């Protein structure tokens, strides 16, 4: 996680061109102008249909020597995804220019267009081309777009992610700023048979639960019930040994700032269901792993992110209060803030509004349960509820938690990067956290200087942090992903016919795939990996649900297998 990091790229200016059109040079020949215009328009044709890898290939070699392919693809997606489809484009001007700070003996030609898109009307679109090897190639591209993304442009981003790239099922974006609230949603609660998502759809929020746990700690401190420097062991049963790291007691503050030295996950997790890994982890096992914890050396400086540590913090706060985590959170945080849709246990009414989690491949997967470590990631919430939470942290109106919120946002580690549960910057002025389970992702960011908050929630394992970061700052690029191929499972009439595929296939000298069958189920296992079930899309094509991959078997006229092809990443 790189919270609030400034990601830069050298290729594309999001709002203005790298060059000044007014810097005219020697008049080009009509043939030059016509050739450059033709090359520009053909190149834009690739961009229009989201074929960014091919548009990179067609770009100027000089540009490609400066800009990696991935940076180009992300930058182009950042320009085009918010705009939607092209509705009109006419050539405005074609002329030679001199590009400042760019050395080219052949000069440049700039082609400007008057263009309109679904979410941006009547703007200027510009392509800068350079002559190399006798042909004109695009060197730079820009679309004039001022201000923050509009709700319509946010909707285009979500549509591109869900409908075009197949990298999501449902996504909700919620924004609060000085102009008010906005909720933009696209997609559904389930890939099949779902309902449209909206501001009242419940999503798993995963590790964003940790900022609630941090606020519970801050509230207990404000109430005088605990101290940040209290040893964790003060609130644990006598049967659990004193928790120490580097010879000193582990404190509540260290748990809340990920500086305790505890591992990311418990050392004694024996996962029975990889789709719901924490479900069978018990309090007894938690105490067992604490008794096994041995950290004689001083804890290394810096953050060592720990689900175990934050889950333990939630557990001891509930123990001290004589209740369970959800009940404590409800009485201390959720009810005071009016957050009626933030829960762990779903009643029938909330289940009807719950967004079913999906793998990155968009196949359903179970929601996570964390009975012993609830404070690390067990909450479900809605965009509207998360806006209430965010606005309380922006101080938009007085609440009973104001003092606790100020404490939770205050930098509390040596580097000044961690509040109580939050990642913070600028002395707590900026704060953020992300969340992920096996099939849901979430994002929250606060800007207390400008009184802005951004929430993004999705019900697939595909990344959405880039959407949140881009809304927070347009300098942050959107990610480009190739279109994911969605395949439908069929049933083989005779499962034993699959046996001709059984065997081991060497794809390289040190990488092979072994194919097996168990009744009417089929499996592949690659070198140094566990087995994955594969599902027939046809008699010869089988796909994985856990990964974006497929296997295609080729046979000769006699039906004998000649080779196996591994298809990945949109192939």
Task: Write a structural description.
There is one protein chain. This protein has 571 residues and is an alpha+beta fold. It contains 15 helices and 21 strands. The protein has helices at residues 30-48, 52-57, 61-66, 69-80, 151-164, 209-222, 252-256, 283-292, 307-321, 325-334, 348-351, 374-377, 383-393, 402-409, 465-472; strands spanning 86-97, 108-117, 120-132, 135-143, 170-177, 180-187, 203-204, 244-245, 248-249, 380-381, 423-425, 430-436, 441-447, 452-458, 503-508, 511-518, 521-526, 531-536, 541-544, 549-555, 561-568. The strands form five sheets. A seven-stranded antiparallel sheet has the order 15-16-17-18-19-20-21, with no helix packed on it. The protein has a six-stranded antiparallel sheet with strand order 6-5-14-13-12-11, with helices on both faces. A hairpin with a 4-residue loop joins strand 19 (541-544) and strand 20. Helix 6 (209-222) crosses helix 9. The longest helix is centred in the first third of the chain and has 19 residues, at 30-48. The two termini are 28 Å apart. The model is unreliable at 1-25 (pLDDT under 50).
